């Protein structure tokens, strides 16, 4: 479509709105255009692409059901190359030049934080499905909405399981960056609340490759549980060095990394018994999960990750709010998003007055015979946790 | 927190520090060699090391190549890449102000990392060859780290012997002491530059190969080694080759001991404080002068 014909289409649509409060279906109407930048290349290429694919499945599904407000939906997606600065420019462009009707969030907390300033400035509602950092939503912003669980609750399940087993001590370590720091702080708080003693809490610099001294200290303290706020490379390195130094806690849980198939590919039998934390798993019995899985694998010939599921759900949640508002008007949609309580293929959605997610649940996985088994919470579990973790030489 | 640091813990941490330090020394020696001969600070040293690590990974992945045997491929391969870089790029900035060489190698570094991301993706890769450790009394000696240390020490000593005793090695040292005099004596300085960059890069590649067996690798793994190598050669005395060994071991020890007595978070800070102290007290590095 050329720019002139676009403009013409837009003016026709505008004329339609002005002329008619008539609720007639108007097939000639221009599509609802939703803009987003996603990390299709660069460091976040993998999860960013999954998120985009999640959006695509959502659009297919909505269009098959007649679109939004009787109009087809069209996604306008640019690649932000995993850099917040590029994403900021792209959201400016989407809103001011492309004049999209609505926006959806990009990948990662860092990029979401950066572009939130733009979307707030232009009063655009942004459902940010892959932003997990609490602070983004606690700065008085009005139009940003959270879908996934915040960093602080990632290891809630580990602490809960440990407390129920009567374990007493926990060592908490984390990479010294935004997300792992927040998850370590949340874990420490949860542990104290449940009566566990935090015998060590320490962070290490990003890119660290040698954890010997840290693990020697932990070994001397002999905690029942080790909880680690990790990304992925550190998760692998720490697990390996725990084996090398024969550090044997009864439970060992990780935030990010422990949930990925690659974790087991890299570590093989050394991944066994390790607990990982995830936002979503395709075995969870959520409404529409099976249909989403089928549509996704049919379209893309590979399995969806939680990023895809969150993107898909975020898009559905936005569409639901628009339907209830009967309009694309930012303030009306915002009111609906604040009120909305729903359950999608990704799990529960409900936000507080800041748009901060309060209902979605994390699940804990454990590696058992090379498979990820959901072991927490009980009502979603597909298997029992193998406990206690045997010593390294007996795995 | 009631943590009592026992002599056993200190012993374990000293072992880990020395094992890590020997690898720092190996990688830094390559950087130091290039700097000594050409006064070029090669920011791309770490990313070149990353290429060495990937060479080992792919050989292992496709053909199940023993990663330690793959040193025989990764080192010559990166030697050639180093020579090509020197011949077509770095040569142009050898006599230019130092900023030019920094900018150029910085560009090369960014290009290498991004090309690696395109070619290999950002996925973590690992060579699961040796895991676990030898238990000696109360101490655990990590198998992959011990092997890395043994190879690193052997290669570093090999490089020393080469620089000390062979004609070529002597020519390299002559050029690093005084290019003009070396030229007058009939040494082909351009050729020595090619050779030095090639050897320096091959040493980085060896480091990459050894690291690949220890930790999971990804395209951005190298940068941290560039910085550590800078630290090591300044600590040991820029242009002083045995100084690299001393500096490397010292850095490894300081990092680990700082993690033990303070926190892991400050180990880098402590290393840089040490650097500042050395620069204040002995600006030429611990072992001064050039060999």
Helices and strands, with pairings:
The complex is a heterodimer of chains A (395) and B (291).
Chain A: H1 3-19, E1 32-38, H2 45-64, E2 73-79, H3 84-96, E3 102-104, H4 109-121, E4 126-128, E5 144-146, H5 156-164, E6 169-175, H6 178-193, E7 197-204, H7 212-221, E8 225-229, H8 233-244, E9 251-254, H9 261-267, E10 275-278, H10 289-300, H11 306-325, H12 330-339, E11 342-344, E12 347-349, E13 363-368, E14 371-376
Parallel strand pairs in A: 1-2, 1-3, 3-4, 4-5, 6-7, 6-8, 8-9, 9-10
Antiparallel strand pairs in A: 10-13, 11-12, 13-14
Chain B: H1 7-38, H2 45-63, H3 71-88, H4 98-120, E1 133-136, E2 139-142, H5 143-165, H6 167-177, H7 179-184, H8 189-214, H9 223-236, H10 241-261, H11 267-281
Antiparallel strand pairs in B: 1-2
Helix pairs in contact in B: 1-5, 1-8, 1-9, 1-10, 2-3, 2-4, 2-8, 2-9, 3-8, 5-6, 5-8, 6-8, 9-10, 10-11
Give structural notes.
The complex is a heterodimer of chains A (395) and B (291). Chain A is of the alpha/beta class and 395 residues long. Chain A has 2 domains: 24-149 and 285-349, 3-Layer(aba) Sandwich (Rossmann fold); 152-278 and 362-394, 3-Layer(aba) Sandwich (Rossmann fold). Chain A has 12 helices and 14 strands. Chain A has helices spanning 3-19, 45-64, 84-96, 109-121, 156-164, 178-193, 212-221, 233-244, 261-267, 289-300, 306-325, 330-339; strands at 32-38, 73-79, 102-104, 126-128, 144-146, 169-175, 197-204, 225-229, 251-254, 275-278, 342-344, 347-349, 363-368, 371-376. In chain A, strands 7-6-8-9-10-13-14 form a 7-stranded mixed sheet, sandwiched between helices. A 5-stranded parallel sheet of chain A has the order 2-1-3-4-5, with helices on both faces. The longest helix of chain A has 20 residues, at 45-64. Residues 18-26 of chain A have low confidence and may be disordered. With 291 residues, chain B is mostly helical. Chain B has one domain (7-281): ABC transporter involved in vitamin B12 uptake, BtuC (Orthogonal Bundle), CATH 1.10.3470. Chain B has 11 helices and 2 strands. Chain B has a two-stranded antiparallel ribbon with strand order 1-2. In chain B, strand 1 and strand 2 form a beta hairpin. In chain B, helix 1 (7-38) packs across helix 9 (223-236) and helix 2 runs antiparallel to helix 3. The radius of gyration of chain B is 19 Å and the shape is globular. Chains A and B meet through strand 7, helix 7, helix 8 and helix 9 of A and helix 1 and helix 10 of B.
């Amino acid at each position: 479509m050329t720019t002139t014909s676009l403009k013409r289409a837009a003016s026709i649509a505008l004329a339609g709105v002005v002329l008619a409060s008539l609720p007639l279906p108007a097939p000639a109407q221009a599509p609802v255009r939703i803009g987003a930048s996603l990390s299709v290349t660069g460091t976040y290429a993998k999860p960013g692409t999954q998120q985009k694919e999640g959006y695509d499945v959502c659009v297919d599904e909505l269009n098959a059901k007649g679109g939004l407000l009787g109009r087809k939906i069209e996604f306008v997606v640019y690649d932000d190359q995993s850099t917040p600065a590029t994403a900021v420019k792209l959201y400016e462009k989407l809103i001011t030049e492309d004049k999209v009707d609505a926006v959806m969030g990009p990948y990662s907390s860092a990029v979401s934080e950066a572009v939130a300033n733009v979307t707030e400035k232009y009063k655009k509602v942004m459902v940010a499905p892959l932003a997990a950092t609490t602070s983004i939503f606690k700065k008085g912003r009005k139009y940003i909405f959270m879908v996934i669980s915040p960093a602080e609750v990632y290891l809630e399940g580990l602490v809960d399981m440990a407390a129920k087993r009567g374990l007493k001590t926990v060592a908490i370590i984390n990479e010294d960056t935004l997300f792992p720091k927040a998850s370590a702080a949340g874990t420490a708080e949860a542990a104290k609340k449940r009566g566990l003693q935090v015998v060590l809490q320490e962070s290490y610099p990003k890119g660290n490759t040698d954890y010997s001294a840290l693990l020697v200290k932990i070994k001397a303290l002999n905690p029942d549980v080790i909880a680690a706020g990790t990304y992925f490379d550190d998760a692998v390195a720490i697990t390996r060095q725990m084996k090398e130094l024969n550090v044997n806690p009864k439970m060992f849980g990780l935030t990010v990394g422990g949930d990925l198939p690659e974790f087991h590919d890299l570590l093989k039998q050394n991944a066994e018994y390790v607990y990982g934390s995830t936002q979503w798993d395709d075995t969870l019995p959520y409404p529409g999960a099976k249909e989403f899985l089928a549509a996704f694998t049919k379209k893309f010939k590979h399995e969806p990750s939680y990023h895809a599921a969150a993107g898909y759900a975020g898009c559905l949640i936005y569409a639901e709010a628009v339907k209830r508002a009967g309009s694309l008007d930012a303030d009306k949609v915002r009111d609906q998003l604040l009120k909305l309580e729903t359950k999608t293929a990704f799990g529960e959605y409900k936000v507080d007055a800041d748009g901060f997610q309060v209902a979605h649940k994390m699940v804990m996985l454990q590696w058992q015979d090379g498979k990820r088994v959901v072991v927490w919470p009980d009502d979603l579990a597909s298997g029992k946790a193998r406990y206690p973790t045997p010593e390294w030489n007996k795995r | 927190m009631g943590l009592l640091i026992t002599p056993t813990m200190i012993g374990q941490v000293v072992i880990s520090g020395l094992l890590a330090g020997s690898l720092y020394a190996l990688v830094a020696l390559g950087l130091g060699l290039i700097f000594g001969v050409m006064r070029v600070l090669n920011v791309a040293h770490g990313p070149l090391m990353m290429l060495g690590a990937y060479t080992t990974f792919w050989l292992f992945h496709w053909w199940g190549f023993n990663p330690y045997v793959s040193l025989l491929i990764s080192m010559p391969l990166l030697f050639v890449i180093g020579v090509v870089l020197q011949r077509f790029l770095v040569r142009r900035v050898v006599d230019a102000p130092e900023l030019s060489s920094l900018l150029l190698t910085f560009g090369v570094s960014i290009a290498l990392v991004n090309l690696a991301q395109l070619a290999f993706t950002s996925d973590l890769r690992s060579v699961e060859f040796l895991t676990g450790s030898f238990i000696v009394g109360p101490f655990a000696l990590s198998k992959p780290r011990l092997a890395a240390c043994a190879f690193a020490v052997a290669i570093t000593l090999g490089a020393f012997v080469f620089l000390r005793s062979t004609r070529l090695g002597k020519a390299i040292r002559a050029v690093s002491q005084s290019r003009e005099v070396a030229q007058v004596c009939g040494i082909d300085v351009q050729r020595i530059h090619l050779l030095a960059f090639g050897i320096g890069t091959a040493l980085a590649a060896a480091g990459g190969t050894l690291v690949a067996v220890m930790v999971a690798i990804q395209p951005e793994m190298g940068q941290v080694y560039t910085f550590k190598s800078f630290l090591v050669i300044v600590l040991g005395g820029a242009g002083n080759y045995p100084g690299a060994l001393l500096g490397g071991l010292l850095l490894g020890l300081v990092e680990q001991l700082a993690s033990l007595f303070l926190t892991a978070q400050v180990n880098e800070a402590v290393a840089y404080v040490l650097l500042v102290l050395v620069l204040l007290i002995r600006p030429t590095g611990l072992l001064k002068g050039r060999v």
